[in-house]
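User: Some background: our group keeps a shared notebook of sequences we're curious about, and every so often someone picks one and asks for a predicted structure to add to the entry. Today it's my turn. The entry only has the sequence so far, pasted here. Could you supply the structure so I can complete it?
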Amino acid sequence: MSSARERAPGRIAAAPRSALSWKALFPVWLWICAMDGLWSAFPGWLWSSSVGLMAVLTGIPVWAGCAFLGASGAAGKSTSLRAWLSRIRQAFPVYYTAPLFTLVVPALFLSLAWAGGVVGRAPWVGEPLRFAWSMTGGLVLSVLGACWIVVGVPSIALQVPASVIEHSHAMDVASRALSYVRRRPLLLAASWIVSGFFSILGTTVFVFFLSIVLGSLMAVNAVGDGLRPELSTICSQVASVWRQAAVAWAFPLPWVDRVDVTSPAWTILVARLAPAFLLASLASCSACVYTTLRLAVDGTPVDQIETK
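Assistant: Of course. Here's the predicted structure to add to the notebook entry:
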């Protein structure tokens, strides 16, 4: 077991490699293109909110699929397409209901606390009753809601990989994730810092790789048009691609141009593999973060918790 503990940080650092699988990269890339298309087709606050909700709902199974690939890679097991799709389908209700339960509980506490404020509308004694409620039931419910939010919201990032890695009920997934956040908050924070660092590092290398591919394709087009490709011109064209806002979706960056896309559409589609890689990498890391906490708290190695 000690050797497994020593390998835990290495599993998190190696998790971004799972994002190179087409089973992780292509679904995320397709999801980004689909959501961006919907966002552009239905402008306005109401439609944007609806598309945002749809992005979350449709993104959860995509995240779960990448997480399962990350867990399989950490366990040193290969995953067939059929087994991968089967696991996502089997975990379908759990990775929705577990986060929903986590969000409903604090919403219920806070709603009851706020609803108690109606006693303040009682004639003559309303103000003393409102003060009494604020200092008793309202205070207790507000504290419970705040505590649940502080512990529960970070646990959602563990619930999706937990639901797809293990065959568990929603309540088991939610309670286990809440327990891990409560018992090992520093380990969780450190694991996510390591995950973010290596995901960004891997994405940087992947962007460099895509830049070479884009530059080569642009040179091919230049030769086809009877022009002589020049390195400075190619580099400038590649840089202009990465500055397009459409590429950075769903991670808008401060240095991108908030103007209409001027680069060819095919370059945008190729460049969108970069944010797809980042998302897939973070999802893969979430599985390794979960298995790290599973090992630290319960002493269960990853090769024992992943089921077929």
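Suggested note for the entry: DSSP finds 14 helices and no strands in the chain. Confidence is low (pLDDT under 50) at residues 1-6.
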